[in-house]
Amino acid sequence: MTDVFVDNKFVGTVTNPKSFKDDLVGDRRRGKVSKYVNVSYLELEDKILVETSKGRSTRPLIVVRDGKSTLTPRHLEQLQKHEFNWSDLITQGVVEYLDSVEEEDALVAFFEEDLTPDHTHLEVTPLSIVGHITSLVPFANFNHAVRLNQGAKNQKQAVGFYAANFQSRLDMDVNLLHYPQRPIVKTIMHDVSGYEKHPSGQNVTLAVMSYRGYNMEDAIVVNQGSIDRGLGRSTYFRPVIAEELRYSGGLMDEIAVPDKEVRGYKTEQDYRYLEDDGIIYPEAKVGEGDVVIGKISPPRFLSSMDEYSLSTDSRRESSLSLKHGEKGIVDFVALTENQEGNKLVQVRLREQRLPEMGDKFTSRHGQKGVVSLVIPEADVPFTSTGVRPDILFSPHGIPSRMTVAHMLELLGGKVGSLNGRLIDATPFESETEADIRKELLNLGFREDGTETMYNPVTGEQYTTQIFIGNIYYLRLKHMVANKLHSRARGPIQLLTRQPTEGRAKEGGLRLGEMEKDTFVAHGASLTLKERFDSDKIVVPVCETSGLIGYYDARKNNRAVSPLHDDESEMTDIEVSYAFRLLLDEFKALGLYPKLRLKSKF
176 - beta bridge partners? Predict the structure, then answer.
C-alpha cells in the first residue's frame, strides 16, 4: 500500500500509485480538478505527494503525448485570429501548470524538434529559462551566463522614465532620464512588458577602439557634442520633509521663521529663502547650509516648573537645511497632514545631472564602465562618411568576457538604424547573424561592421578597420556627484572625539591597517602621524596607582592623582581619546586598568 499525503498531511493509502497519479493528472487536464493541484509519485519512498497550498510557484508547460506536442498549428491559427485564448488552452489540457514537486517527474524539451517519446512537456517559449529582466537582453543566448546575470542587474540600476506622473509624486531619491528611447534591437519581452512606455536608455553610436589609453580598464570615452545634444542627461530629485511633532505636556513643534531669541538661531542669510509661513518658495536656488523649512521645537529636557513658563529663548531651532555638498532648485512644495493630524511639509529639490567624468554607463550585456574622459567633438575620430561616434569602447572588454551579444547588437543596431526598422533579438529565436550581415552588405557597408576611420588631430587614416555600430546604452544611478567626498578638518563625535562618519555628516576618510602599511613602506612618517592624531589627547598618569589623573584648577592647574592626591609623581602621556574612554569603561565595570609607564629612551 502507498501512502498519500495532501499538503504534507497523511490522508490514506492506494494500491496502484502510478494509475492513481495518472488519473489525477487526467482529471486536472479535463478540468474536473483545479489547475493548481499538483501530484508527484516518489518511487524510492513509495509515497504520493499532492500539493494544493497557496503561495507555491507554478509555471505553464505544453503537454506532450507520444513525443508530439498537443499544441497544433490549428490552435496557433485560432490564437492569432483571437477565436481562442490562453484559458481555452488550459481547459482543453494543452497547457498545464507544474510546481517544483511535479516538475521532478517531468522531462521538458526546449524546442519542438528536440521532442522524443520520453518527453512529457514542452516549453511555451525557450525564453522562459530566464527571468523578466534577463529576457530584455538581446541575443542573450550568445552570452556567458555570468555576464547575462550582470546585464540583468545593471538594467535595474538604469536611470529611466520610471513613471509618467512623476510631477505629482513625491518620490525619494529618484532619477529621471530626459530623452529616453526605445531600443532598436529588442526582444519579444519588450513588447509584452510595454517597455516603450517606460524606457531607460538611449541608442548610441559606438566605436570599438582605444583612445590614447583613456578607455583602458573598462572606462569609456564620451563625445562632448553628444552630451550637448542630450546624451544621458537626467534630473535627480531629492526630498526634504518636516512635520510638527507633539510632545508630552501638550508642547508642539512650530513650522515658522525662527525668531532671533530662539536658542541656536543661525544667521539671517541662512533664512533668506523662507517666506512668512517658514517654508521656501518654488524655483529657489539653494546650496549647502541654506534652510529649506524653518522649524522651532520645545527644549529637549524640561523640569516640572518649566512647562508653565516657556519663554521664547528656551525654545530651540530645529530647521531643516541642506547637508554638506547638497544643492538644487526647489521643484515642488506640498503641505498636508500625517496620520496623527499633524502638519506635514514636503519639499522636492531637483538637480540637473549631465554626464561627467566618473559617471557610470553600461550596455545590456554587463559591459559597464565609467566615463574617463569627455572630449570635444572636434577631437573624436570620424568615419569616411563623417560620422563621429558618441562613445569609444575599449576592445579589451570583449575577449575575456565573451559577450558576443554585445558585438551582435552593434551589428543589428547598425542595420536597424540604416533600414529604419526594429531588429528582433529574442534569445533562441532571434534573427540570424548571417541575415544581418547580408542586409548590411546590401546597404553598401562592409558585412563585418567595420569601417575606415580617421585620426581627428592629424587627419590621417587609421591603418586598421574600426568596428562601429549602434547599441542601446544605459546611464546608471551611480553618479560621481552623489559619491564625491573629501575632508580636511571638521566635525567630531561627542563620545570618542573621532571624526564623524559618512559623506552627509562631512565625515573623515578612514585610514585602515593596510593603508597604514603603504605609508610605512613609503616612509611618509609625518603623514602617518598626522592621520593617526585625529583623537589625540595628553593625560596625566599617576606613576604609583597607574590611573589617569586630572588637573586641579584650585591648585594652579596642577596634575593630581585620583588615589594618592599630591603624594605621587604625575607624568603627562599622549594617548588616543578612544583609549582613555576604554579605560573609563573598564572602571565602570569594576576593573582596575593600571598603566605601567617606562621611558622610551
Answer: 160, 235
Q: What is the pLDDT of residue 434?
A: 97
Q: What's the rounded mean pLDDT across residues 240-264?
A: 89
Q: What is the enclosing helix (H) or strand (E) of 509? A: none
> Can you tell me the distance from the alpha carbon of 582 to that of 588, in angstroms, rounded to the nearest whole number?
10
Q: Is the pLDDT of residue 150 over 90?
A: yes
The secondary structure of 434-501, three-state, reads HHHHHHHHHCCCCCCCEECEECCCCCCECCCCEEEEEEEEEEECCCHHHHCCCCCCCCECCCCCCECC
Match 575577449 to its residue by C-alpha cell. 399
Cite the active site residues. 218
Pairing relationship of beta strands 558-560 and 391-393 according to DSSP bridges: unpaired
Residues 6+ apart with CB under 8 A from 371: 219, 220, 221, 222, 355, 356, 357, 358, 359, 361
Q: Is 293 helix (H, G, I), strand (E, B) or coil?
A: strand
Residue-range domains of the chain with CATH:
2-124 (no CATH), 136-165+174-233+357-475 (2.40.270.10), 235-353 (2.40.50.150), 485-531 (3.90.1800.10), 536-588 (3.90.1800.10)
Spatial separation of the C-alpha atoms in residues 154 and 150, rounded to whole Å: 6
Whether residue 473 has pLDDT greater than 70: yes
3-state SS of 312-368 is HHHCEECCEECCCCCCEEEEEEEEEECCCCCEEEEEEEEEEECCCCCCEEECCCCCE
Q: What is the CA radius of gyration of the chain?
A: 35
Rounded to 5 degrees, φ, ψ at 577 are -65, -30
303-341 pLDDT per residue, tens: 555 555 555 457 899 999 998 888 999 999 999 999 989
| pLDDT recorded at residue 308 | 55
Per-residue pLDDT, 304: 53
